[in-house]
Design brief:
Blueprint: E1 2-7, H1 11-23, E2 26-31, H2 34-43, E3 48-52, H3 60-69, E4 76-80, H4 85-93, E5 98-101, H5 106-129, E6 132-135, E7 138-141, E8 146-149, E9 152-154, H6 158-169, E10 175-176, H7 177-185, H8 193-207, E11 217-220, E12 224-227, E13 233-236
Parallel strand pairs: 1-2, 1-3, 3-4, 4-5
Antiparallel strand pairs: 6-7, 6-13, 7-8, 8-9, 10-12, 11-12
Length: about 240
């Protein structure tokens, strides 16, 4: 049974979400206050956090930011009454996994929740089956979500790690921005290419010595991105 935290100050909505999450065999904890929710999220383990943006005490954007700051990779589905593009972008940049704008249909909500669970399960299985990845100084430890370059730890956000792991697991394979959105964020529509671009740029900033000549993540102009297949890969399965 999956454990879900619903942070929503509208009781009618939270009760409705609870009913349908229980139909998915989830245990549901409901909280209306932002500060209380943050404390709960940081001190208990959840499989999903459904997070409204407009909340008493502390808004959902700040809650998401604080959760990710603690290297907590629990999937976050954000809800909001706002529809402006900037709110969606901020939510994604802070590390949200998906985004729904009110009013939304319950069918759409269930579909998003199921999609998040599928992605988490698939990524977890891929990491379990993968050993340590080594690329000429860059070492990725999937099970620990740890990255080092020349023995120095590189601090990555959840999405930055997932992007790097996906690309490094398939060196030479070119992924379009749309494919990366679908695999990492779950978005299957256009309009969020800038989210991929900004994450790639930040990732490069943490990995590369010379941004004008990236060593690891290569741009395939007009197509997308790939991990440099000229780097020798060693796959050492952990015992």
């Amino acid at each position: 049974m999956r454990n879900v935290l619903v942070v929503e100050d509208n009781k009618t909505i939270s009760d409705l979400l609870e009913i349908h999450l229980k139909d998915l065999e989830c245990k549901v904890t409901k909280i209306e206050d932002g500060l209380v929710a943050l404390d709960k999220a940081l001190n208990e383990q959840f499989d999903l956090i459904v997070l409204d943006i407009m909340l008493p005490s502390l808004d959902g954007i700040e809650i998401c930011k604080e959760i990710r700051k603690e290297n907590n990779y629990t999937p976050i589905l954000m809800l909001t009454s706002k529809s402006e593009e900037i709110d969606k972008v901020i939510g994604l940049e802070m590390g949200a996994d998906d985004y729904l704008t009110k009013p939304f249909s319950i069918r759409e909500f269930i579909a998003r929740v199921k999609a998040i669970f599928r992605r988490v399960s698939a990524l977890a299985q891929e990491k379990t089956n993968s050993g340590l990845l080594s690329f000429n100084g860059l070492i990725i430890e999937p099970n620990k979500r740890k990255v080092t370059i020349n023995n120095k730890v590189v601090k990555l956000t959840a999405k930055e790690f997932d992007l790097l792991f996906l690309l490094a697991s398939n060196p030479g394979k070119i992924y379009s921005r749309e494919q990366l959105l679908n695999i990492i964020w779950g978005y299957q529509y256009q309009g969020y290419d800038h989210t991929v671009n900004s994450h790639i740029n930040r990732l490069r900033g943490k990995l590369e010595d010379d941004l004008s000549q990236p060593k690891y993540i290569i741009t395939s102009w007009g197509v997308g991105y790939k991990f440099n297949d000229n780097e020798i890969i060693v796959n050492e399965y952990e015992k």
